[in-house]
Amino acid sequence: MLDAAQELFLSQSTAAPLDLIATRAGVGRATLFRNFPDRQALFLALLNRSLDRLETEARELRDDPDALLKLLRYCADRIFSNGPLIEYWQAMDPQNPDLQAAVARYIKVFSRPLRQAVATGRCRADLRPPDILLLSSLLSSRAIKRAKNRKALAARSWALTVAAAGLKSKG
């Protein structure tokens, strides 16, 4: 169901009919609503799945001295390819406890790689885990999503993010 929802939200819009998602997933409407009582629950499930994947990526990069840079690049690639989902999550009520928990998870993923990068001089010494949200905001700018030269703006956004964080690669 999540695969079908993500595919439709990205190919059509975040307003894609939930009935169409159920059909695409090969389940009945009741099954969809039993698992996801509303659109927001479906989007939160997609967000948590994305965080699960990010945590897996972070574990795989655990001993990599460039883990921070690679994790940010991993996120940037997903931000650029999942624009409509990112916009929906950004538009959610920031006081929503589920969203707050997701944001805390996002920041936590970067804590260890950030400490390592600071300790080894691979980023600005004053960079802190909550700063990752600021860097991610730069990468997920609405101006990029709406522009005709989206690819060029995404590349420029990445370059500015790397510069702002003072990121340096070992290799």
UniProtKB/TrEMBL annotation:
It comes from the Bacteria. Signal peptide: none annotated. Residues 1-54 form the HTH tetR-type domain. InterPro entries: Homeodomain-like_sf (IPR009057), HTH-type_TetR-like_transc_reg (IPR050109), HTH_TetR (IPR001647), Tet_transcr_reg_TetR-rel_C_sf (IPR036271). Residues 17-36 bind DNA. Keywords: DNA-binding. PANTHER family: HTH-TYPE TRANSCRIPTIONAL REGULATOR RUTR, HTH-TYPE TRANSCRIPTIONAL REGULATOR UIDR. This is TetR/AcrR family transcriptional regulator. It comes from Steroidobacter flavus. The lineage of its organism: Bacteria, Pseudomonadati, Pseudomonadota, Gammaproteobacteria, Steroidobacterales.
